[in-house]
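Changelog note: in this version the structure field was regenerated for every chain. One regenerated record is shown below for reference.
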Amino acid sequence: MPSFDQVRFRLPRGARADAALAGGVFVLVALAEGQRLSHGGDAMASLIASWLLITAVCGALLFRRRYPVTVGWFTVLATGAYYLLSDIDAPLIMVPIVALYALAAQGRTQAAIAMAAAMVIGVSVGPLAGNSDINGTAVFMLTGWLVAVVALGSVRHSRVAYAEEEARLRATEERLRIARELHDVIGHNISMINVQAGAALHRLKKDPAQAEEALGAIKASSRETLRELRATLGVLRQVDEEAPTAPPPGLARTDELVASAKLAGLLVRIERTGAERSLPAPVDLAAYRIVQESLTNAAKHSGAGRVTIRLAHADGELTLAVEDDGEGAATRPAGSGGGSGITGMKERARALGGELAAGPRPEGGFAVRARLPYEITGEPKWSGVTDDQGPAGG
């Protein structure tokens, strides 16, 4: 037995809807014209002209999507001519009203207003042509209907335009987010691989053991890069794959960044203050990526030897700072363009309602400082002053 969704009635759309409307109006007008034929007394030429106009007006509706303005003006003028020839109050006026609404819904407001004004003027001068059925009330009611039709069409156009613009903005934001993720994931690991490869080449003859250690780190970094790249592409493709076994990027994986930086020749120290809480996933990811990008820049651009990471948990916000003893801003990339370098870190902080500043320190070196607000969702895990990880920087 077919389901309800398969058998339920569906209204026609597009050209089929226009054909159904044209056919329905033609039938209604034909029924009204039948009364005129039964009464008799009208000249045959007038009857033939009326039927030709009815057929032309209803048929023109089939072409309104291809020639909207031309069809609109034709239906307005032809309908006006029909009412001059016939004293039957037939519903043929529905056709120009539909054309009028369609024009306004497409954003052709000026053409729609001009046609509505022509219809009102034409009806207003009707009594001059001998039509005693038209009075001030009829003109007022028609004006109100036409104003409402144009207004509804304009509202429809505005809503469609707003929805399209919102969709474009969402797509742009998603592209920037993906670009930031790919830059932070691949850029960090590839930069570390580059540094470690250079170290391996330098130590290959002098210290084969350290060269072997650097090559092992390259293998691990490349495997991690491939895993994260597959995970990102899997999300984009929305395919059903096995759930990743590694924990998601967050401050809990800071030790991995420290270990990678150590192999790149950096001495990293982590200082934690405040009562640590469970961070919301977006905040945790942003903090991890900021630390990751800062360590990448320190290893790749500044020639730093020591880096200090400070994480301060306060009520409702996380404050972090990454400071190194390198060459400051002289060799740092400006980070122009969305999703890269310092610009990408600033975008991450702003997306959470926070802020990020990066620049040289007065005492030398470079510093990245960020404030990431969040809602308090859990009890403190621990409280402490400092927690050193990695080689001491003192």
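Spot check on this record: The chain has a mean pLDDT of 76. The longest helix spans residues 136-203.
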